[in-house]
Amino acid sequence: MGRQIKYGHLLHGGDYNPEQWLDRPDILKKDIEYFKEAKINTVSVGMFSWAMLEPEEGNYQFDWLEKVIDSLYAEGISTILSTPSGARPKWLSDKYPEVLRVNEKREKNLFGGRHNHCYTSPVYREKVAEIDRRLGEKFGKHPGVILWHISNEFGGECHCPLCQEKFREWLEKKYGMIENLNSRWCTTFWSHRYQSFSQIESPSSLGENELHALKLDWKRFVTEQTVDFMKAEIAALRETGTEIPVTTNLMYDYDGLDYKKFREDVDIISWDNYPGWHKKEEWLTATDAGMQHDLMRSIRKAPFLMMESCPSATNWKPINKLKKPGMLLAASLQAIAHGSDSVLYFQLRQSQGASEKFHGAVIDHYGGNDTRVFREVTEVGEALEKLQEVTGSVTCAKAAVLYDRENDWALKDAQGPRNEDMHYQECVLKQYRALRAEGLDVDVISMEHALSDYKILAVPMAYLFSEKYEERLREYVAQGGTLVLTYWSGLVDETDKCFLGGTPYGLMDVTGVRSTEIDALFDWESNHGIPEHGNRLGLQKVYECKNLCELSEVSDAEVLMRYADDFYAGSPLVTHKAYGEGHAYYVGADMEQAFYDDLFKGVAEEAGVKSLAEAVPEGVSVNVRQSENAEYLFIQNFSRKEVVVPVTGEYQEIYGTGSEVLAPLQTRVLKFERK
Amino acid sequence: MGRQIKYGHLLHGGDYNPEQWLDRPDILKKDIEYFKEAKINTVSVGMFSWAMLEPEEGNYQFDWLEKVIDSLYAEGISTILSTPSGARPKWLSDKYPEVLRVNEKREKNLFGGRHNHCYTSPVYREKVAEIDRRLGEKFGKHPGVILWHISNEFGGECHCPLCQEKFREWLEKKYGMIENLNSRWCTTFWSHRYQSFSQIESPSSLGENELHALKLDWKRFVTEQTVDFMKAEIAALRETGTEIPVTTNLMYDYDGLDYKKFREDVDIISWDNYPGWHKKEEWLTATDAGMQHDLMRSIRKAPFLMMESCPSATNWKPINKLKKPGMLLAASLQAIAHGSDSVLYFQLRQSQGASEKFHGAVIDHYGGNDTRVFREVTEVGEALEKLQEVTGSVTCAKAAVLYDRENDWALKDAQGPRNEDMHYQECVLKQYRALRAEGLDVDVISMEHALSDYKILAVPMAYLFSEKYEERLREYVAQGGTLVLTYWSGLVDETDKCFLGGTPYGLMDVTGVRSTEIDALFDWESNHGIPEHGNRLGLQKVYECKNLCELSEVSDAEVLMRYADDFYAGSPLVTHKAYGEGHAYYVGADMEQAFYDDLFKGVAEEAGVKSLAEAVPEGVSVNVRQSENAEYLFIQNFSRKEVVVPVTGEYQEIYGTGSEVLAPLQTRVLKFERK
Amino acid sequence: MGRQIKYGHLLHGGDYNPEQWLDRPDILKKDIEYFKEAKINTVSVGMFSWAMLEPEEGNYQFDWLEKVIDSLYAEGISTILSTPSGARPKWLSDKYPEVLRVNEKREKNLFGGRHNHCYTSPVYREKVAEIDRRLGEKFGKHPGVILWHISNEFGGECHCPLCQEKFREWLEKKYGMIENLNSRWCTTFWSHRYQSFSQIESPSSLGENELHALKLDWKRFVTEQTVDFMKAEIAALRETGTEIPVTTNLMYDYDGLDYKKFREDVDIISWDNYPGWHKKEEWLTATDAGMQHDLMRSIRKAPFLMMESCPSATNWKPINKLKKPGMLLAASLQAIAHGSDSVLYFQLRQSQGASEKFHGAVIDHYGGNDTRVFREVTEVGEALEKLQEVTGSVTCAKAAVLYDRENDWALKDAQGPRNEDMHYQECVLKQYRALRAEGLDVDVISMEHALSDYKILAVPMAYLFSEKYEERLREYVAQGGTLVLTYWSGLVDETDKCFLGGTPYGLMDVTGVRSTEIDALFDWESNHGIPEHGNRLGLQKVYECKNLCELSEVSDAEVLMRYADDFYAGSPLVTHKAYGEGHAYYVGADMEQAFYDDLFKGVAEEAGVKSLAEAVPEGVSVNVRQSENAEYLFIQNFSRKEVVVPVTGEYQEIYGTGSEVLAPLQTRVLKFERK
């Protein structure tokens, strides 16, 4: 399970850049006073400090950092220490140009930005390892340092000759013989056959851009090379004997990397959470943010850290709105409810210049503690102290939704019925939201996850089946699971090569259905589903569907719903088949939210899964964290009106309103002791 | 007229890629069974087979192809054999980088895609010629091979040094002296004068991008160089003594090439037809597709081949809809009605991978013949057998619309009244549609076409007059033709140099009108035309006009209609003048469809041109093909309601409903024997 | 004040390209006849004549030009003579590639376009100086030449190695020590610290693109380098002893250069005016154009020249509409009203080819004088003769609006509350329009302008305060001025480094307000302001605000208006504080036009500033020019209905309708003699 962080309380604090204020000791001193006032117990430093830590090659200047860490520690504040590889000093890229990236058009980048380094470059790896080792030696046993923060928000890709060469090696290792690659990649199409691995080049808009298998493997390689880079950083630290756990901060639904591949190499998952509150109704945004929390938690199926969040308005969105009063607290406690052991901010003190100078901060340019933001941050600090006992408690979801990055990559690049938008994310989100509306904890999983923990498994648009996923689904159903599978599933293998003989591949007997055609609808078109009289789930309404409508032949399944319109009116749309000990539902079209709400209500009842809360009104979010001795029920009202959430049983309110009535943005936390 | 294809029946079949299935002889065998079941008599092979035909330089492997062609022939199925130049093997571009294109920004392409080869490169030409010769030797007298298919969908351009040099030679040949070029191109503007041909560079967004004459000549050069490349391929085949005719497949309204320049060098025109059915009402799409069929037929004024069409949904449009039942048959017979001697599909069997894996096919990944698509393809096959006698019959249109690619290029690049959109294509289409609504066969012609066949000639927005077109129009009218000329005509010569002294150049006396100013309207603006009381065509309605409104001085013409709004209310908008034996109508603004419908109704009556059908309801398409002994009247209902199309005279229904009533998408073919 | 043009009358004429017609002496002769007929007294030549003046290196051919200037002079027509540096001959860029630009992606341009030359290149400067000197020698004392026109519409930037080097020198001169630059630029952020000036590179999308101070200094450098280039041209002319004054033509709201830096080096400001008439109501366009006239006049606070304007439709806008009858005259007289001493057109005769062939001209391709445009141009000529006595009279505005280019650059690049659009220009325009609605003359000034002339000073969104602007504003108010300051003011210094301690920096005591937070609104959101009962300006309506809403703490000010909505309902929105002898108003949000109209009505009354006209109906524009002996009141009706503009006092109508009633587009000019 990796090394454990020794904290015992929820972390509160965030990113801090003292190197920007070394000429202002008065400010550095004031900061600590403010931190304590705001119940800040943890500070992250070092993310972009390389130029200050090694101002010239080989000239290491760690004193200022030591002083900061010591001062914080003296005041009871812990440090998360970052390796500085997220941005390089100018001298480094001037002396060793190979460290700068080459983009997909084969243009060499100039110095600038942040994530602008080749993950393959031996020089860059060596220089990073060297400074990491020195940091490890200096701070690796410091009692104030509780976590290594490896680099910052890994991302992007490089197409330099070094990466090309590495990619070829990676492919050779994967495919062995070039003939095998040709066959798996279907290179005979358009005469794109390779005679040797040395002929392969990464995808480019100036060259090969439509060989989907190449693009998919390139994305896999980018992930693996990034992980490998991170592992090299961790190894450099470990060489020094430091036993402090490691993490790296991930990003919201970032599609440049397959985060599941980071699972083994970090000790704890952490991520940066920046929902766009107040753009639409808050409960919609909360569901979206909640799914990301669940996705991050599910990577290791363990508590995680919210490494960054914004105490006020961001400065990098098109429109950067203020958080309304109460929003910061509710959003912070949402992270805890979903399994975070921290509320950390970017940033503690605002930079005076450059591109993030207007990003919200606990302490702004004005510099006082008499601000609304400072007061609200303090309120969060107080709440976290009250909730200290939930630290380390876990989430035991009985329902899961498949949301796999490789599937996402393949599906979007596939050139199929809709090139404008397949609406994959929306389809996943609708099913996630329907399960959450039942008050259920939900894991958001990849194809690599074990399935046996779940009673309900939603598998939307699983276009790509990797490593015989069809067999794992079959076994899951056979052994009693309830599977909800949709249109556009089981079409290709992991190299985007189509299965022959009918789809959903390997599951036609499990579902009793074979997909025959798929119709794409223009944005202004829709079809409808009409439930069959007396269907097993009691569906009664007419539901709208849009975008994609699959036609199918039913060999052996109950039809629950049929199409209402177009030439396929009357054709099957939703079916059910009992298979082994379990159930297989198949949904043929991109249905509206109300359908999924009703479907999963029925499915949950059938599967006997239910929430600790008696009822979950629209806009309310319910989560459970479990420790050895207790269950903690988090109830949050993200709607814009007052709600009543009845809860029965014996519990103690450890945070909240003292009533089943919650005003907008209010939170209750109820503790149920285990008998 | 070029070599004739020896078929005697309508071709049915399409693109086939057996090289993708060489490891599956069971599938290759099954394919032939299926072809026969679906009445498929023709198969196109070899388009992108170079890597399989010459896997390494000089190592030719034709056995697999021979086996395929023999097997097909043995079962009565003919082969259209493609030269493989549409995509190169990797070894070729690795060894001879000059074969890859350079784009207009002077970036060298990498290997990838399809049309990514320099048409000038001597090496590429040599390598192509070599494999073409070997194919010619091997298959050039094979009884199963009925047509050479040169490359595939020629297109794109290259700005490499070889092309630059060739362009300079081409210009020197055209202009002789640099002073002549300077004068014709108006290079004194902005000091862009050249001292020698060697100074000239192709247009580039990094350099010369506003010298319209340069850009126009560059486009002409690209066409000529492409044709020259094709001619080199044909010559290589002919060297081997093969007498099989040649074609190359053209594309829908492709503006990268001037297709009229292909006329002399192919034996038959063929093109790839992919209308976006069901996006708007089918009859609108049918008119659009019909115009393209007519354009392709008009290139050689002879029957053509529909070389590709989609049996199901495409996969490369933003939204790829299924064809509704009956659509495939109607669209296939539309091609025949407009002069095609074939219905060929892309593709017979779906690829298992890469960018076209989801493009519709006769046989899909499922692999069975028990699919809707397979049944509908078979239905087409049966229909074509019934229509066998129309093979080779011709279209004798009495009306024509000018739609010239050079005019299109010049007009769009001109920087005149509207840079957003001049609505040229729409203007052409409205006039085409109005003529077709009268039930007339229509040729869609370029400025090079002879005019004497036509009683009615629509000349919309003929901005550029090449090679004294004004004199040919004058003669056409003088000898009895009816010309409908519009605004924005006769402004520049073939180097985009403005005529002095008034426009429409050379036709001010023929029309009795001189254009004085042109007003551009914003998209939200419109003006209106009010007919003059008692005008010769009996126009009575008020019509809307948009986008462009020309003001003119009438010297000597009847005003049929005047503007209703703005400061030019009351000014002439539509005029008529009798000139010589004929009539010249002039239309001053971008009128709505209804105006053109009424105008051409009157003009057709006046000219005494009419359809074989008594009446043509909206949404119905009527075409006539003529053989030595008979006329074949095709009636197709592309509307969404039942229609009655009365036909008098003595005829025999060789395909259809047996009644004058046609349901949506139904087709009748009536044969009128010549007395 | 620079050299004076010796004219004594208003200039009428414009750009003329005789070099395009040297083979048509008949046309050149006809042109002069037409010029005289249209009262054209001034012609601009030579803008893009380099290739004709020096067809090969060192071979100068000035005879044709001399002949043209002599012929014009013989007929009483003056010449404005341009240096030809706006476009280079092909031989020059072929022989000396360094003269061509490198773009920000470090791509070397090819020959083409116009402004495609490096302003740093020593070779380019030398070649330009040489031809300028020769022109100076030949024409510098010619009695027909009245003005040197340096190059044409300076603009664009170059990132070549020569410019990089110059930029580094410029920075070193500015900052002295690299540590100073690091500190001012806040380079510690993201490890972007420099160790030496030699490490610095210009901004690039392939490299450094988010260090705002670098980008701001780069823009300043581009302006300075452009001015330096212009100064080198002027110096070359002056070397020859010519005493003719110089100008260069500026462009509409061009944001690539900071025009205030041209002030010292030209003798008179001139600019090219192309409003998009008839896109919206004419009076809205007139206000917009009026602000640009005022901005240009304010640069030197002196009469200017309208160097270009279009006699008909342009050809480079998306939609190029015809000017309706009367529009040309009204727009031409508007220039005079705002301080221009000329009405000059681009162009006198239309080019026959290339990119501007359809740009409107006095003489078009038809070539006659019997056109609407020619008649209207003649009408302008006649009007200018009637107004001859206003030549050289000045504008004495009592109100000013700050619109500073450096502020514009910084504000747009800042990455703050709204990255989509901060609506800066609109905010400036609303305040300008409100002041003009009161009939006031308005200066549009930069932060460098002296403030003592003004009774009212509008300072909208002054994000950046350069060179202690806060102190100048404080002094302005203290000494009796009325300041209207808005939200988002006083946040950063001239290197975009945030002020600490509260904003508006240095003015919290002057305004009695400290800004605490700023909310960004989505486009579909709005808030409202509710006036306080009995507020000093008598504001009574509820006004809408959008986009940006600032929250503030009021220490010591009268609140005039409060927010109506959202969580900050009831918070202060508009305040007033008397400070010293003056008044400081603070506006917290992006208010609608009606608010500013009412605010400035009250402010003008309070400040005792008023118009010569008794009332100014909506759509009417009123301006005053003053000579030693008289005031000239220009009244123009840009609305679409007849208006009455009452004027009292003793005056003489020197141009107009003879009545206080003005039809749409009519103009009156009234002369008030000084007693």
Structure report:
- Three copies of one chain form a homotrimer.
- With 675 residues, chain A is an alpha/beta fold.
- Chain A folds into three domains: 11-85 and 120-154 and 224-390, Glycosidases (TIM Barrel); 399-607, Class I glutamine amidotransferase (GATase) domain (Rossmann fold); 620-673, Immunoglobulin-like (Sandwich).
- Helices cover 30% and strands 20% of the residues of chain A.
- Chain A is built from 16 helices and 26 strands.
- In chain A, α8 (212-239) runs antiparallel to α12 (405-413) and α13 crosses α16 (593-607).
- Chain A is globular, with a radius of gyration of 26 Å.
- At the B-C interface, β14 of B face α2 and α4 of C.
- Chains A, B, C: Residues 397-609 form the Beta-galactosidase trimerisation domain.
Element layout with pairings:
Three copies of one chain form a homotrimer.
Chain A: E1 11-15, H1 25-37, E2 42-45, H2 50-53, H3 63-74, E3 78-82, H4 90-95, H5 122-139, E4 145-149, H6 161-175, H7 178-185, H8 212-239, E5 246-247, E6 249-251, E7 270-273, H9 282-300, E8 305-309, H10 327-337, E9 342-345, H11 372-386, E10 399-402, H12 405-413, H13 424-437, E11 442-445, E12 456-459, H14 469-478, E13 482-486, H15 508-511, E14 513-520, E15 527-531, E16 543-554, E17 558-563, E18 572-579, E19 582-587, E20 589-591, H16 593-607, E21 620-626, E22 630-637, E23 643-644, E24 652-655, E25 661-662, E26 667-673
Helix pairs in contact in A: 5-8, 8-12, 10-11, 13-16
